[in-house]
Specification:
By secondary structure, the chain is an alpha/beta fold. It is 43% helix and 15% strand. The protein has an eight-stranded parallel beta sheet. Strands 7-11-10 form a three-stranded antiparallel beta sheet, with no helix packed on it.
Length: 315
């Protein structure tokens, strides 16, 4: 089905479907399940201490004999320790984000590790290609979590990045079903990366309160905010409203940082505090109305992809 696909060949996977490495959601259970189902599962290291990451990698290696990856935000304070664990544990693929791809790409590749960098613009996709990465994830404005300041939508970003790059391209942002997967690939993506849909899965390590909130929210109930710190798409809850109240008072960067404090994302997504927590999720949540096994999500997306492709080809 995807025999000549650049990403399935690069990663040695069955489907060009990648589960995003989301903080507080993407542990070894989710990653191994997606990989066993034929996609590429990713452990999200951004919310893990080094020893916790090592534990998740070990458990993932026991749970699957298929390739999986680790996502490493470049702003992580102990990133050197994370990189060394990834090398020592022989993780085959690393996704880097939120920083300069030149920093670790050469080191990782010298150990036979494939490197993918997440970008939000053509400019940064070219920098990633120059740094020697094997592929890029181009993530549009619709995505949950930390996002680009440019607010470029996925379906605008993908063809522009495709035109500029020579290396494989993975689309992300607003993709949660097979229809969107096909549309992104028609626009030039070689694969898709899916985050929000996998948050609403049984295997995601996020709190059940958060998962339920994801399937309950409707169109317009998320917003990109906190651009002065790091742009992030949040569910509109009490914490979000507190941010907006500060903006009304012409808040400084320091005021916003004080309100954000520490462990706000953990409070919301992992501990289930829907009022005071930072609830990061994408716009596609408005289309999600059930919590499913991750394997079912993979199978449904591929079935939908094939069904819609068949209809187009038969017109």
């Amino acid at each position: 089905m995807f025999k000549n696909n650049k990403i399935t060949h690069l990663f040695d996977i069955k489907f060009p479907l990648i589960q995003a490495g989301m903080i507080w959601a993407s542990g070894w259970k989710l990653a191994s399940t997606v990989s066993n189902a034929g996609g590429l599962g990713i452990i999200g290291a951004g919310s893990m201490y080094p020893e916790i990451l090592e534990e998740h990698i070990t458990k993932c290696q026991k749970a699957t004999d298929k390739p999986f990856a680790v996502n490493v935000p470049m702003l992580y304070p102990d990133i050197d320790k994370l990189i060394q664990i990834i090398i020592d544990k022989k993780v085959p693929i690393v996704f880097t984000s939120a920083g300069n791809p030149k920093t670790y790409t050469s080191l990782l590749k010298s150990h036979g590790i494939k490197v993918v960098h997440v970008v939000s613009s053509v400019k940064f996709s070219l920098k990633a290609q120059e740094a020697g990465v094997d592929a890029v994830v181009a993530e549009g404005f619709e995505a949950g979590g930390h996002n680009g300041r440019e607010e470029t939508t996925t379906f605008t970003l993908i063809p522009m990045v495709k035109k500029a790059l020579d290396i494989p391209l993975i689309a992300a942002g607003g993709i949660g079903n097979g229809n969107a997967m096909l549309a992104a690939m028609i626009l030039g993506a070689d694969a898709v990366q899916v985050g929000t849909r996998f948050v609403a899965s049984h295997e995601a390590s996020s709190h059940l309160n958060f998962k339920q909130k994801v399937i309950d929210i409707k169109e317009g109930e998320t917003q990109l905010t906190l651009k002065e710190l790091a742009p992030v798409r949040l569910i509109k809850n009490k914490f979000y409203n507190d941010i907006q109240a500060l903006y009304q008072q012409s808040a400084s960067r320091e005021d916003l940082q004080k309100l954000l404090g520490r462990a706000r994302a953990k409070k919301g997504m992992f501990e289930g505090d829907l009022d005071e927590g930072e609830l990061e999720i994408g716009q596609i949540s408005g289309l999600i109305d059930d919590i499913l096994p991750a394997e079912t999500i993979v199978n449904q997306m591929i079935a939908e992809y094939n069904e819609v492709l068949g209809k187009i080809c038969n017109k």
